[in-house]
Design goal:
Blueprint: E1 4-7, E2 10-18, E3 25-30, E4 33-37, H1 46-59, E5 66-70, E6 76-82, H2 86-92
Parallel strand pairs: 2-4
Antiparallel strand pairs: 1-2, 2-6, 3-4, 5-6
């Protein structure tokens, strides 16, 4: 799955964020990206904060382990999660190859 890549220190995710959704949830794979719907609006970094909090809660990691590598102001983002494996992330996000 190209949306999820193993890295030396963890996992890199390609994510498409859909802000202002009715609830926070993973909406599956769209193209080469994991589609994540968030209730937060895309202003003043609120969607980025919501994305980090959602991923931390879903993956069972600390927020400090999650970093938005690229796409701070875009809907398409690359996110690094340190201290986890691709298999763990896929299982917790309920993704299948």
């Amino acid at each position: 799955m190209s949306a999820l890549r193993e890295a030396n220190d963890g996992v890199t995710l390609t994510i498409k964020v859909v802000p202002r959704a009715s609830k926070n949830h993973v909406a599956g794979i769209e193209g080469d990206a994991l589609k994540v719907r968030l209730t937060a609006p895309p202003v003043e970094g609120k969607a980025n904060v919501a994305l980090i909090e959602f991923l931390a809660a879903t993956l069972g990691v600390r927020r400090a382990q999650i970093e938005i590598v690229t796409g701070q102001t875009a809907r398409h983002k690359v996110v690094r999660v340190r201290g986890v494996t691709a298999r763990d992330v896929a299982a917790k996000l309920k993704l299948t190859d």
